[in-house]
Amino acid sequence: MELELRHLRVLCAIADAGSVGRAASDLGYSQPAMSTQLQRIEQHFGQPLFKRNTSGVELTRYGTEVLAQARDVLTRAAAIGRPAEDGARTRRSLRLAATNSPVLAGMLMRLRSRLPDFALTVSSVYPSSEIVELLEHGAVDAAIAADYPGRELRHSAAVAHRGVVTEPSFVALPAGHRLRHCPEVALADLADDAWFLTPDDGAGWPGVFYEACRAAGFTPAAVHEFLGDHGQLQNMIAEGIGVAVVQATLRPTPDVLVKPLVGTPLWCRYVLAWRRKSPADEVADTLFASAAEAYRTLIAQSPHFRTWASRTWSVAGRW
Asked: Any idea which fold 167-263 has?
């Protein structure tokens, strides 16, 4: 088989959808036809690009490398025939801000190919309240923020928002923790543990955590305020210094366990917010679709989340 651009588009569609069936629907193919196409593409490369699982597919390490090159080729192909000076003159800026969100990396990867005429810039802004202020004052065009059930993100009519996903919050424990064999962990059973907590995000955290602790009948024994990268946090958890509420799709290191909480007392919603005057509606739709697809990929790569979901929900849940 001679590799063509349409084959690269098939790979991107499957990776974005996290499922051969969903990708087939997006491209207007039948699922058998899409499966056959993927089989031929993988035969061309000589090894699997995707691993199959119960919820769809996820990229192999080799597949990740091929996909990055495929997106680059498609972007370059789309630019053929555009004079460099015209491209520079018409290229528009799109200023993004994002809180500590798991969807950001996958979202940006998709936006590079879907919005080639935009120069993307990203600012890391932890407090969602500050993100709203940046949007209100026109300092950024769009953002990924967070809020919590019953505490919807507040902003003026100049800003619009749309929920990307509402996910349960899980807990990260050291691999040798006394509750390591429990499929789910009761919040009250962690009353004597020290906690790592991120600071006030202006949207309800850590207030929702302390409310859940009070409802479970305890006040945390000790709290370490922490705002850093996940790698550093997991290193400290692995050493037994404390436990932490984490995003359900977090990939744990070998010495860390990620487990759901009994009764799911904590939820977090990730929100796409944007200025109503700019970007245009179709750009906002692209931002949302890219964020949602990035999250589906995270689910496909999170066996502990899929196990919890299959055990907890008999129908589609909030995500």
From this structure: D-Maltodextrin-Binding Protein; domain 2 (3.40.190)
The answer to whether 12 touches 70, Cβ cutoff 8 Å, is yes
Q: What is the pLDDT of residues 257-305, one digit of tens each?
A: 999 999 999 999 999 999 998 887 788 999 999 999 999 899 888 999 9
Q: What per-residue string of b and e applies to 152-190 under the rule 16 or more CB within 10 Å gives b? A: ebebeeebebeebbbbbbbbbbbeebebeeeebbebeeb
5-78 has which CATH code? Answer: 1.10.10.10
∠232-202-256 over CA atoms, to 5°?
A: 25
pLDDT tops 90 at residue 234: yes
- Which amino acid is present at 229? D
85-166+268-312 adopts what CATH topology?
D-Maltodextrin-Binding Protein; domain 2 (3.40.190)
pTM over 0.85: no
Distance (Å, whole) CA 140 – CA 121: 9
DSSP 153: P
- Residue 318 is predicted with a pLDDT of 45
